[in-house]
Amino acid sequence: QVQLQESGPGLVKPSETLSLTCTVSGGSISGYYWSWIRQPPGKGLDWIGYIYYSGSTNYNPSLQSRVTISVDTSKNQFSLNLSSVTAADTAMYYCARIRNPNLYMDVWGKGTTVTVSS
Amino acid sequence: QTLVTQEPSFSVSPGGTVTLTCGLSSDSVSTSYYPSWYQQTPGQAPHTLIYNTNTRSSGVPDRFSGSILGNKAALTITGAQADDESTYYCVLYMGSDIWVFGGGTKLTVL
User: Fold this and answer.
1) Which of B10, B48, B83, B95 is the most buried (most CB within 10 A)?
2) C-alpha–C-alpha distance, residues A54 and A61, integer Å
3) DSSP 8-state code for residue B26
4) pLDDT for A42-61, tens place per residue?
């Protein structure tokens, strides 16, 4: 079955760019929508954005100016870049698959913790 | 920005029934919002329970059910068990390729 694995630096300095990758195994990235979600410590889940395997994207309006999601179908991966980070971006970051139709997240990665600190 | 509202906390007795709700600050929730529900225990990734209002994800026990109640989406747990103690999140599809999570309901079984 499809599994997702997030990877990337666990520590990022303020004002720098957070970069994470989600690797899809057990299935193809093609034909599906893929998403990033985050969860600050002790708080709820927050949708960051999505990408279709063809490259079309959309983002949470509150993060839109700082977020870029990209896809590499040859590597079965998609990535998140979040620029100009602050301590408020410290969170667990999850990647997930979105099923269409029905428009829900059906497979989740285990998550990766990112701390923003100097 | 539209807010998706959930009860911050709820408690239920073992074997009891509880209904958690998911509303909108500026509209009624309907099936057009494709409500989905996720369960999260501490230290774990979310787990999909319900999608498209009332369809259980594969392997989810039938004590979990989804519906529209009045102007909100609802998750009902019938015959609550100790390991149902979790935080439950709803997600609504807002159209224009935007999804919004509710703030989550922390359910205590005691």
Assistant:
1) B48
2) 21
3) S
4) 999 999 999 999 999 999 99
